[in-house]
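Let us practice reading a record.
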Amino acid sequence: MQQLETLKSMSEYQLRGLFRSILQIPNHWVQGGKGPGSARFAYSLFCLLLFCAAYTAPAQSQKKVLLILLDGIPAEVLERVNTPSLDQIAEQGGYSRGIMGGEIGGKSESPTISAVGYTTMLTGTWANKHRVYDNAINNPNYKYWTIYSMLRHASPDAKLGIFSTWEDNRTKILGAGLKATGYLNLDFVADGYEKDTIRFPHDQKKLYLNQIDQLVTDLAARTILEEGPDLSWVYLEYTDAVGHQFGDSAEMDHAVQLADQRVGQLYSAIQARMDDFAEEWLVLVTTDHGRTATDGKDHGGQSEREREIWFVTNAKNLSNRFRSGKVEMVDVVPTLVDFLEIQVPRRQRKNWDGSSLVLKR
């Protein structure tokens, strides 16, 4: 397809040179009309065939991914609250409940804590491998690559973006710029706003996180629309802050509705990209943990409600595993790799604890 695009941009002079180089015909035969008449006819036919091929061949879609994590929303809350944007995405692909936490009592058991969930989602491994057991993220094992490192390795020119209400997602979990991650570089970054207490004064109700979530969403939507990164992760935190303060409540329901509106804003940008460009987008929305059954304020343990998460995607070729409701957080990386069709070193693939949720075409 790249060759065809090149042909579209070639001048008549360049085409004439290409024609002569292939058929080894003297320049004056095709330029001045001298020589065998068949040469001029052959040249005209050659150009016609080239342009027909260039303009009628179907363009190959470029595959791109948007990963969205809405923090700390229990599945039963999501299913009860009106979420038209998430419903719209699910209608294109599907919705499923899932699991975060590994094997209870086994070596893979992982706390249902935010940073643990993010790292599990991005590496396809449980905490016994990636070594993130809490939000301090003191000793991550970068030997287990994130999907960002995988894509950068497979396609050095890929455009990578992160839009996050928590800066540690980039600096600690992805390890951007660190020697241990090969100095992973990102092309589009919007984070760190939680440290700007002048622009976003910290209030008791954590409303400043709601403001940052909206800013992050605005920047992500604009970047997607204008730049179309190959891989983007949008992380929104406000729902978890509301959950910790109010638990299962009308406030939590409202926070979920706000998150859904932001998902709709991002999805609209993607739909615009797909209308204007030959792009195929995979959208995957999930959460990092559930909440306690007593009041919905806490998480971290291995109760059923704390371990239960959910997945929403626009992918159409979903596997039976997705439909079974037994999806696990470790399934995200294999799914993204299969969709993007990138080459990942065998030593990395063998570390994965999950499997792909999309069927290969």
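A brief commentary: Residues 1-23, 25-36, 53-58 have pLDDT under 50 and may be disordered.
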